[in-house]
Amino acid sequence: MRLFLAIDLPSPLSEGVAAAQALLEDADGLRFTDAEQAHVTLKFLGETSSDRVPAVEDAVETAIDAAGVDPFDASVGGLGVFPSLDYIRVVWTGVEAGAAEMTRLHDAIERETTAIGFEAETHDFSPHVTLARMNDARGKNYVRRVVEHEHPSVGSFRVREVRLKKSELGPAGPEYETVSRFSL
């Protein structure tokens, strides 16, 4: 099963995610994520056999204890892209308040999951919610203009847990299911 660790945005924020996506709806070549499934990925684990789940759960518990992060407030807003405005693959909205706490959680989870054999990240962690993926460059200039001139506010929420999620790829896009919850 494909697994990842994430902080889910609560349902009321899906409207803010959809509003941010609406700013980009006229751009060709974008494939939008499901606003109802919006989340901040802390660590992508990839294909993982079910017999490794207990070790992952133990590693995440250890990581959360080590990070020393209590429940905190987070806010999401603005727009950005990966890897750059010249070559856009992902359009996102960023974590504004709460980014430091999410980074501490990510760093601790990264240490503990690589210690049990998962691959280390190859890029710096930047807490964000993916809004869309760019399939081709037809809408690049439109996306660039929106990202440079718009700063939507998605909303704020209280972060109380990290979730181990399973991702099932289907014809309508990925479907996510929570496997485990870890309280802060």
TrEMBL record:
Record-linked InterPro entries: Cyclic_Pdiesterase, RNA_CPDase
Domain of life of the native organism: Archaea
List of catalytic residues: H39 (proton donor), H128 (proton acceptor)
Molecular functions (GO terms): 2',3'-cyclic-nucleotide 3'-phosphodiesterase activity; RNA 2',3'-cyclic 3'-phosphodiesterase activity
Entry annotated with the keyword Cytoplasm: no
Enzyme Commission number(s): 3.1.4.58
UniProt keyword annotations, A-Z: Hydrolase
Short sequence motif HXTX 1: positions: 39-42
Catalytic activity: a 3'-end 2',3'-cyclophospho-ribonucleotide-RNA + H2O = a 3'-end 2'-phospho-ribonucleotide-RNA + H(+)
Motif residue range(s): HXTX 2: 128-131
Function recorded in the entry: Hydrolyzes RNA 2',3'-cyclic phosphodiester to an RNA 2'-phosphomonoester.
Family named by the database record: Belongs to the 2H phosphoesterase superfamily. ThpR family.
HAMAP family reported for this sequence: RNA_CPDase
Protein name per the record: RNA 2',3'-cyclic phosphodiesterase
Organism: Haloferax marinum
Gene this chain is encoded by: thpR
